[in-house]
Amino acid sequence: TMTRPDEDLVDGLTLTVEALLANGVRTIYGVVGIPITDLARTAQARGIRYIGFRQEQAAGHAAAAAGFLTGRPGICLTVSAPGFLNGLPALANATTNCFPMIQISGSSERSIIDLQQGDYEELDQLNAAKPFVKAAFRVDQPQDLGIGIARAIRAAVSGRPGGVYLDLPAAVLRATIPAGTGRASLVRAVDPAPAQIPAPESVARALDLLASAERPLIVLGKGAAYAQADQAIRSFVETTGIPFLPMSMAKGLLPDGHPQSAAAARSLVLGQADVVMLIGARLNWLLAHGQPPRWSATAKFIQVDADPMETDSNRPIDAPVIGDIASVMTAFLDALRPERITVPAAWREAIRERTAHNVAKMRARLEADVTPMNFSTALRAVKDVLDGHREVYLVNEGANTLDFCRDIVPMHRPRHRLDSGTWGVMGIGMGYAIAAAVESGEPVVAIEGDSAFGFSGMEIETICRYRLPIVTVVFNNGGVYKGDDLNPHSADPAPTVLLHSSRYDKLIAAFGGIGYQADTPDELGHALEDALRAGRPALINAVIDPTAGTESGHLTSLNVTGSLQPA
Ligand SMILES: Nc1ncnc2c1ncn2[C@@H]1O[C@H](COP(=O)(O)OP(=O)(O)O)[C@@H](O)[C@H]1O
Ligand SMILES: Cc1ncc(Cc2csc(CCOP(=O)(O)OP(=O)(O)O)c2C)c(N)n1
Is the pTM of this model over 0.90? Predict the structure, then answer.
């Protein structure tokens, strides 16, 4: 575009930031460098908060968690090629979890890449990203930045949320066009996550099915948490009186311990429910694909989901209700005639009995007086402290650390638990914790297996640099799949590395945070209480019995065990 010498010009960097601002972006998580450092500086100058990480995967996990918590796409900013690739696992994980995020990566010169002439950090990023995202766009001229960013925003949050890749070549960022033309090209996406109203007949069909049930069950998934339809969901559950089962990141939609919670009777309700209403929960591996013997062969399913393709994915669905969960729950409440749905006392009683039995068994494990701590006794101490801090966001990853914490530490508020999710990804811990602290302004407690912590542990420095109120509790059982000496059969087992004596608490001291060593539940409880009161970055090294738990936690059965027994 020709410009008059005196005409004001605007560059692609500025247009990108103005397009993000026009669409409500207020925070960017990332690792800067060529060619996007000035993009971050321009963003900061215009009031966007830029959080600089130590590795792009953690920044991406932070952006994904921000998307889950706010319903607006989290933004991860990376450099080209290696930085772009480092962000992909988080972008793919966001797509798998249905969290809205956009990874914006600078990229090299198209003409050099397409002729494979060996540019600095040459990589065809757009095509590399496509298998892992809900949508991928590249902007090739500055006047398209407005529409490109609006499309990326809409792709991330509309329908089933997910990860979006946006490729910004260096040439576009440095290009200038007449300011008037540039500003006229900016687009604010109108209603990017439009309500999807369910068909009334689909609602009626589902209510008829619920009315016919002898043993109804509602399963709440992280889609129900993401939808921010908390009151509608709670009143539907309580008005119908139907028992509910929260998946891990739906915990707190109704408080754990709610009289209708069937969480402590999970096996019973999965096996005996005759009508199951899935709300934002996929019948994937986490729910045994809806198949017997875990589920009844004759159970009928209602599936509430934004994505019609989820219907019949694992089991025929008798009553699909397609729409956004907020609109669907409103439609259900409008059409509901409570007198039509009665939950037989026998079903409620069976759940109550099994719950009482399992809670008693659990209590015995929690109260055990063992040294060193095991997962249960350590988590009882955590539970007792967090019961008095319900504003705390809980981040959780590991194997046994994940499985035990999910069952032992109750949640009382929606979207306050962030964990390894659908993929069971290790490495989400510090990124999710940083996003929860930045987006909510509330304190965060991260309960980390020691191996899991290692995936993003360097972000402890990021946490200290921004002085975030995050307490990281490392469950140190020396279990980092430590290689040679793990295999007692190895010909020459390495000397037993005293990993169990690792002092993770000293790591945070290097960056000005507070470190605690905890060998008993009392020490763990006091350290956690003290760290929460201080409201500063802290790390507690909780020593856990190395013989406690099982390899891969509750997923031991998924492991492949070799048929060849070592000599
Ligand atoms: N706002 C929404 N409205 C309707 N469905 C949604 C919404 N957000 C996410 N979903 C759906 O919720 C489901 C989440 O399922 P999943 O991640 O398996 O939950 P969980 O692992 O907790 O069971 C996905 O199928 C997704 O399409
Ligand atoms: C990105 C990625 N790489 C590897 C793995 C495989 C794995 C699953 S669980 C786990 C850590 C288990 O050790 P930890 O000490 O955290 O657990 P525990 O003491 O029992 O609580 C790994 C490495 C996964 N899931 N994701």
Answer: yes
